[in-house]
Amino acid sequence: MxxxxxxxxxxxxxxxxxxxxxxxxxxxxxxxxCMLRMTEPSFPLNQSGYLDYAKHLRAVAKxxxxxxNQSHAPLPLxxxxxxxxxxxxxxDAIERSIEATAxxxxxxxxxxxxxxxxxxxxxxxxxxxxxxxxEKTARKCGVKIALENLGRADYKD
Length: 157
What we know:
5 helices, elongated, five-stranded parallel beta sheet, 5 strands, 14% strand, alpha/beta, single chain, 157 residues
């Protein structure tokens, strides 16, 4: 049995490298690398060298005798009708997170669905298109997409 946790809360305080060390020192075998901070412009996975950064973290984890078993893509949370800039930004971030998942050495990227409050038909249409688009990136990277719902369509950050 492997014991895993995600890194988000600790990484916000200690940074990614130190968090890997802390988790390894505290008995975890593997890490769910959380990329929710990709909505922050300064997050390293939003920079031009994001794949090198992910590969670096993979090496840090290996040196600590842990590995990345999966990742969490940023949450799109909602579809913003008429806001092409936001919708494009979040889709690009999620595709980049799938690429980073592969660079981290993880096989699975958890991708939450798009929510559209009050319009289930539109939500279903958008999600079919969304996951079909992501499928191309995932296949290219050799990463499986895991869908994790949020339990309610009106979730906001």
